[in-house]
Amino acid sequence: MKFSYSFRILRYVRDWCGVSGIVLLTLVLATGCRSKTALDANGVPYKLIVAVYEGDNPGETSKILGEVKPYLEGKLGIPVEFEKSTDYTTVIEAMTTGKAHMAYLSPFSYILATQKQKLVPMVAPALNGKPSTYVSMLFTNRHTGLHTMDDVKARAHDLTLCFADPASTSGHLIPAAYLNSIGLDTKTAFKQTMFAGSHYASVLSVKSGKVDIGCSMALVFDKMMREGLVHDSDLVILWKSDPIVESPICMRPEVSAVFTDKVRQAYLDMSKDAPALFHEYMSMYFPKQADSMSYIPANDSLFNGLRKIAGSLGDLTPTKK
Question: What are the tens digits of pLDDT across the range 81-123?
């Protein structure tokens, strides 16, 4: 019935509009049936769909991405759409199921995604031309009476522990690995282990006294201090990690390699072709270093160290008590 109905429409268009009308209708019908992430015959998206985590700064991130969008569209010659999420799990799913062509991922979310789907890392932030890094930290409210990790070990069974996002590197993977390395199994050693959902939420949960120990990346804590959301006197820093390699921007492998290189180059050129935009973006977390920041090409081997850490820990899902 559907095919018969469609043919009657085509005959109607032919009688009234001629061959050109049929061509136009065919194009309209084909566009209507095309999936959102469809690729043309050369493997180029009709519209580039980009998945982005914006859990910590949704308003600020949306504003800057609104400026990145026309920059990319001008460079690529196709529409660009940012699909924003408040958790990395959704971003990972978008990339592993083909709901997005490209994503901004944390190092750990990249590792988790590539366990299911090969991805092409394109670029990562750099400082003075070398891969940029950041650190994770564990902290507590001053009123807990905790001052060192030895204090934490002595009182762990009476303490609550808060991670950020499950796929966060500095807010989950690295602090969990450290705690396990000193004999504190994050599933069993604490009174309760939970996820706050974001770095901001983790910091604020500890500041308010709802949770005893939290973790986050130090860049977020510094940013929250600049915003007046937390003060240095509110928290005690119990531990800081070794440097962690920065986050990659990735593409799905079925997208044309030529087009992927074009996107990569757009990011590599951003600091010189759109310096105000790039400075604003990097200033979110690197206000004093933004002028020395850039993007550099990224490759999968950059994350082998973190991949080894993740593999040694197995399932990181907390056990609720």
Answer: 999 998 899 999 999 999 999 999 999 999 999 999 999 999 9
* Residue 139 lies in domain: 133-244
Torsion of CA 168, 185, 205, 56, to 10 degrees: 0
How confident is the model at residue 57, as a pLDDT? Answer: 76
- 206 within 8 A of 235, measured Cβ to Cβ: yes
Report the pLDDT value the prediction gives residue 8, as an integer from 0 to 100.
42
Kindly report whether the global pTM for this prediction surpasses the value 0.85. no
Tens-digit pLDDT profile for residues 9-52: 334 444 544 544 444 444 444 445 678 899 999 999 999 999 99
Q: Which among 244, 273, 296 is the end of a domain? A: 244
Number of Cβ within 10 Å of residue 158's Cβ equals: 9
Identify the CATH number of the domain in which residue 266 sits. Answer: 3.40.190.10
CA distance 222 to 206: 15
Q: Is the pLDDT of residue 76 over 60?
A: yes
Q: Do 229 and 138 fall within a single domain?
A: yes
Q: Are residues 102 and 146 in the same domain?
A: no
Q: Are residues 117 and 159 in the same domain?
A: no
- 193 within 8 A of 163, measured Cβ to Cβ: yes
**C-alpha distance from residue 178 to each of 61, 108, 168, 181 (Å):** 30, 15, 15, 5
Is residue 168 located within the same domain as residue 231?
A: yes
Residue 15 lies in a domain: no
* 122 shares a domain with 157: no
The length of the chain is 321
SS3 173: helix
